[in-house]
Amino acid sequence: RFLQDKGLKVTDCGPAAKERCDYPDFSSLVCKELQKDPKALGVLICGSGIGMSISANKHKGVRCGLAHDYFTAINSRAEGCNCIALGERVIGIEVAKQIINSFLNASIDENGQELKSRLARLKEIEEENL
Fold it and tell me: Which of 1, 7, 61, 73 allows an S-S link to 67, with CB 3.0 to 4.6 Å?
């Protein structure tokens, strides 16, 4: 509800139940949504955020940062991330909201030469290895 209350379009990729699940399956669902829409942003949540970020970064076109505070959320966007992963065992709900707000509202200089160069190099590496 947090994101819907902000008037944002949300696609909830689950899980719907609280039972243990395999995070790569849910990470893949989010990544497929990101691949469909280059303007979309994703938020992944698991126990530490590490597994989700690893899984997400195995998908072409997805750049997922592990965010655990305001600073890492903003820097994730500045480095061209289109997704962040959070650890629900690491941060509380209010910090999670701050991180998500920071990520969604951070400006990204898509025309900046430094970022363009880095993203182009990442795309080359992605093509070579994925």
Answer: 73
Residues 6+ apart with CB under 8 A from 47: 87, 88, 89
Catalytic position from the list 46, 64, 81, 83: 46
Q: Phi/psi class of residue 29: alpha, beta or left (left: φ > 0; alpha: ψ in -120 to 50)?
A: alpha
Q: How far is the CA of 125 from the CAs of 22, 60, 95, 98, 119, in angstroms?
A: 27, 10, 33, 32, 10
d(CA 89, CA 111): 36
pLDDT in tens, the chain (130 residues): 888 888 888 988 988 777 777 889 999 999 999 999 989 999 999 999 999 999 999 999 999 999 999 999 999 999 999 999 999 999 999 999 999 999 999 987 776 788 889 889 999 999 999 8
Exposed/middle/buried for residue 40 (C-beta within 10 Å: 0-12, 13-18, 19+):
middle
What span, in angstroms and rounded, lies between the C-alpha atoms of 121 and 110?
15
